[in-house]
Structure formats: C-alpha cells, structure tokens
Amino acid sequence: MLAAAPLVAELLASAPRLKILATSRATLHLSGESELVVPPLSQFEAVQLFVERARSVKRNFSFNDENASSIVEICVRLDGLPLAIELAAARCRALRPEAILARLGQRLELLTGGPRDLPARQQTLRDTIDWSYRLLRPEEQRLLAHLGVFVGGCTIEAVAATCRIEAPGGALDALDSLVAKSLLRQEDGVAGEPRFALFETIREFALERLAADGEREQVRQRHAVYFLELAEASAAGLVGSEQRELLELLDGELINLRAALSWSVEAGAADLGLRISVALERFWEARGHAAEIRRWLESALRGAGSVSRRVRARSLLLAARFDAALSDYAQAAAGFEEPLALFREAGDREGMAQTLASFGWTTMMLGDFPRGRALCEEALEVAREVGHAPTISRALNNLAADLLDESLSIERRLEGPRRAVALCNLGLSRLRGGDPLRARDALEEALVLARELGDSWQLASILDFLGWTELAEHRHVEAASYFEESLVRHRELGDRRYAADCLQGSRPSASRAAAMPHVPRGSSVRRRRSSARSGCLCPRPTARGTRPTSMQPARFCRPIRFAQSGGRARH
C-alpha cells in the first residue's frame, strides 16, 4: 500500500471531493491524511473472540467458572491481538485453556496452524511478525531486536544508551517509525515523558532475532549497565527532597531492574547487580520489596566471585537490615558482624557508623539494651565525626526519647524519608508518657508523609500505632479501622509477627485499653518514664523471649520490662 502513495496523491489532486479509505501497516504521509489507529481488542471483545473460535473447532466448548480465569489471562498475555487469540483458541481442539496458558512462555511455537485458505504469513504468529519485520529498514530491524531486552517498556534515554541508535534522526525518530508501523506502542510515563513498549508476542520474536544475530548478551549487558547508572544516580535523591519523583520513576522501571539483577547473576557479573540493590535500598524498603531483595542478595552473595570488599560490605549490610525489617532480629544481628569488620578494616567510617546504628537498633530489639545503646552511641560519635546527617538522625532515633526532638529537627531540615520514622517514634514516646492526644498529632503527620511516599513498611507500622493510640482513648471503632488496614499491609509484606499484633488490637475492649502500659489512668509507666528512655523507641520493638503482660501490644513489652528492671545502658 505504501508504494501506492503517489497514485493516491494524484487521484486526490485530480478529484478534490474524492475520499479514500485505506488500510496499511503505516500511514501514507500525504497532506490531509487523517490517521485512525485500530487498538487491540478490549478484554470483553478478546474473550468473546476466543470463545467463538474455540467453538468453531470444538462444538461443545463452554466458557465457565472453571476455565474463565485462564481464558482471560490468555487474552491478556496475547495483548488482545486478534490473530494471536484466534490461533490460541484453535488449540482448544486438543488442549484445555489451562494447558494453553501454561504453554504461552513459548507462544511463537504454540500459535500455528491457521486456516489454509489464508496467506501463508497469517497461518502462524511467527510468520505474521516476520513478514512485518522483513519490511523494515535494516536499522529498524536492529532496533526492534534490541528493544526485546526491555521488560515492561522503556524511555528514550534508556533506548539511546542500550540500543546505540544509528538512524539519522536518533532514538526518537527511530522509535516513532516503529510506532507508526504498529510494532511498538507509546504510553505516557512519569511527568508526561513518553514510554515505549513492545507487545509481548513481538518481544519474544525480537529476542529470537537478537539471539540469531549474536548480540543478545552484549545488549543485555548494556541494559544492565544503564539501570546500574540510573540506580546510582537516584541513590542520593531517594533520601532527599526528590524522593517522591524518583520513587514514581523507579516504579515504572521495576521489571527492568529485576531483569538487570537476574542477568548479573546469570552472566557472572554479581558485582553489578549488588551495586544496583545497594543503591536502591530506600526504594526496595518504601515499596515493600525487602523480602524479595533479601532472597536475591542471599543468592547473589553465595555465587559471587570477584566482588570488591566495599560492595560486599554494603551488600551484607543491606541484607542484615532487611532481615531486621522482616523481624528476623537474631539473623540480622549475626549478619551485621561481617560488614562491620570489613568497614573497620577498610577505614570506612561512614560505613561503620551506618552499620553500628542498625546493629544497635537490632540488639535493642533482642532485649539487650545496654549493648544496643553502646553500639548506637558509637554510631552517633562516628557519624558526627564524618558529618553523616542521616546516620546521626538514625542513631538519635535509636537512643532515647529525650533525643527524638533533635532527631526530628534534623530530618525536617534534610527533608529526608525518615521524617515519618522520627515522627512515629516521637508519637510512641508521647503514648508511653501518657499523652495519647499529642501522640496522635505526631502519628497522623507521619501517616500523611508515609502515604505520600507510598512507603509500605512505614504505613503498616504507623497504622498499627495509631490503632493503639485510639484504643488508649477508648475510640474502638477508629482503632479497629487502623488495625484492619495495618493487618492487610503487614500480610502483603509477609510480616506475620506484626500481623498478629494487629489481630490482637483489632478486638478492642475497655478492659484492654485500661490494661495498656501507656494509658494515663493509673499508669506506672509515667512514673518510670525516665528509665524507659534508656530503651529503644524505634517503630518495631519485639517481645522475643518475653511473655507479654496482660493484653499489652507485644512490641511495647521489651522497653517496659527493661524499665521495670531498673537497667541502664553502659556508656
């Protein structure tokens, strides 16, 4: 059809009232041309087409509760493309929908056997895509193959860095050409920036071509290097004023980041993947990916060959921190020993301070408050020596209630993500001191910050603490609402220990509220407040090894018991 463009132009010039309706794989680029893009089928249309074609090869085929979810997933996985859906439905002659879905990992092998009266290029999905591919210019063919390494789409910058565009107009013109030929789709990304993605069926074909051209590993390496550079460029902003924008940006690249991590292990380049994981610590934590990255770190560190001591130390520190975030404090405490030793040997004072602060917090969670306080005090001393403000704030948070205001003032100045943590700890301090009204003020401010960031871990904890705050004021309906949302979030994060705490709180009663250690009426905690300051007021205390008294929330028991014993931290 494209070859007919001159003839169409001549006809239109000769007959001004003439209108021509043309279908083509690309626009004709003629004056006055209006383009109508035919989108993929909607989910309803796709399912309807699948069922119709399935019944044409198997008369008694039915759409029912047993196979409905599989049919819908098949249509989604095939991107709503009519030919792909028809070829998949034709397989119902021999396979159930569930079996077809299970084989879609090799869809180009599966989707064959179209009607013989159609052109050969429409009898298999691979032939259809290959026909379009062969009509491309060589540089477009190469770009299409390279785009196969991106999962879930890509930006113009990512394409330019990974695919090394040689087309005259650069990356944007080359991408626009593939969009015009319906081989690539364009979407709106963060801040209105364009994002480009292949349909999954075309992506599978692209990867085949990339392997056939012998370039697959080189392009996957450039893909991983680009996302390493993106991760390390984002690291500072993730703990600063740019965090919201960067979290949204990284949300869109999550699947690509996972692909880069996977490639680094497969290719024996664990150092690269470990650097990505360390740089994005704040992103993993805020978006609830700690458990996933902890598992990946364990695998990567086990198989890592030549990894620099600094990268190993940073990776071990991250693994131990995520163990603590997942409430495995004993494993976390053991895990901090090696990175601390590596940082000491290397004279890395900043790394030492960060490790000591996290180690101290974890030690407090295990109930050893004197040692935990000593570690946090050393962390504070080293952090002040090197001027590392985030660790100064973390150590202050961990040390005692009378230092929380200083910690919060630092976080407000830094506009860092730990403002919510500092506010949460301040709220807990006020709650224990018998002031639930002021505790609610701090916790509600923390909740707003955590919701703005979409920080799953902080949200789960803050909602739980707000539940206990409302319970202290005998506001049982409000408390139940907070506990229910916190329970959902803890379960999503895989944090079963604190999910149990939410379940305990979600059955409020006046007697339980009266029994809580921070309730003003008759509370002995107010009288012991100065001793309690020796304990940790971080968001996730534990009752490991201690039987909770009465119906106190388990996470408050360690600090309270330490206060009752009259223990003091050693300086």
Largest sheet geometry: 2 strands, antiparallel
Unreliable spans: 508-571
Give the total of beta strands. Answer: 2
Shape label: elongated
* Number of helices, counting only DSSP H or I runs of 4 residues or more: 31
Q: CA-to-CA gap between the ends?
A: 83 Å
Strand order of the largest sheet: 1-2
Average pLDDT level: 81
Helicity level, as a percent range?
A: 55-70%
Radius of gyration: 30 Å
Quaternary status of these chains? single chain
Beta content: under 5%
SSE-based structural type: mainly alpha
In short:
With 571 residues, the chain is mostly helical.
Describe the model.
This protein is mainly α. Helices cover about 65% and strands about 0% of the residues. The protein has helices spanning about 5-15, 45-55, 70-75, 80-90, 95-100, 105-110, 125-135, 140-145, 155-165, 170-180, 200-210, 215-240, 245-250, 255-265, 270-280, 280-285, 290-305, 310-325, 330-345, 350-365, 370-385, 390-400, 405-415, 420-430, 435-455, 455-470, 475-495, 495-505, 510-515, 530, 555-565; strands at about 185-190, 195. The chain has a two-stranded antiparallel sheet. Strand 1 (about 185-190) and strand 2 (about 195) form a beta hairpin. Helix 12 (about 215-240) packs across helix 14 (about 255-265), helix 21 (about 370-385) runs antiparallel to helix 22 and helix 22 packs antiparallel against helix 23.
